[in-house]
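Schema walk-through. Below, the input block comes first and the output block second. Nothing else is stored per chain. Lengths vary across the set, and this one has 296 residues.
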Amino acid sequence: MKLAKIIFATLALLSSGCSTVLPPQENSGEVVLSVDKTSYSPNDTILVTLQNNGEEAVFLAGCSPIFISSQTDTGWSAAPLVVCFWEGYAQKLEAGRSFQERVPAAHFVGVHKFVAAVYAGCLENEPISTGKCRFLGVFSSPEFEVGGRDSGAGNLEITTERLEYSWRAEDLGSSRLVRATLVNKSDQTLYARLGDAMIGSIDQEDLHVAYGSHGHLEQWQAPNSWRELPSGILIEGVRFVALRPQQSHRLLVHLYSLQGNETGQFRVRVDYFERIDPPEGATPQVDYSNVFTIAH
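--- output ---
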């Protein structure tokens, strides 16, 4: 009965994302949970490995031994990779051996880590709940990002205020805006058509992803592409502005031209130049925001 209570508490911990009772242990010498990269595109496959470096066998849950824990606006929330109707027999992992799973990245856009409850001394051919196991702990992989900042030039850092939105008015407001921060991380002034043409200054705090600008809203299209969506129109149009070194701007992504039923994974792309008057046909440099989701 005592072990059953421990298992229940562990599953409750993983499902809720809480870490106050059983804090995940990272980089334990005897048990190591790892991923093969820290950044993936949605069409990648994530390789997650649990390595037993100890001197005794360890045991994992039979049906879904590894959970995925996702970063949300309110903290971390964990869920099993497999929905189980029965816990299954405990999986034994001998000393020096590893357990691996391959996970399609397309299902998990955002920031995540894997977690796993690990046990020792279990009876073989028994589930964890009846195997008289000794609980070792909940182990965590390093954090990783799926569909995050694409391989742009790396001069602009574009970060949305939130990772999750919905079309409800309380989320995007009556103006249907996604708000982000844009920072020029380079040591030189860059230029982009992101300003409000009604404002005469080349230096503007508020920038706009709008029709005719160098800012673009893109939506993920399975299996491996992004498509550009139509942008809202500023009444006075847009103009070039300066993006000065280490300067932060508010970036307003105008969505009112959309129908309000577009859902899924999105990102912002910004094109820019090293001079305010680039020659016609010049190829811009490009950077991307993090990926965010919009639900109904």
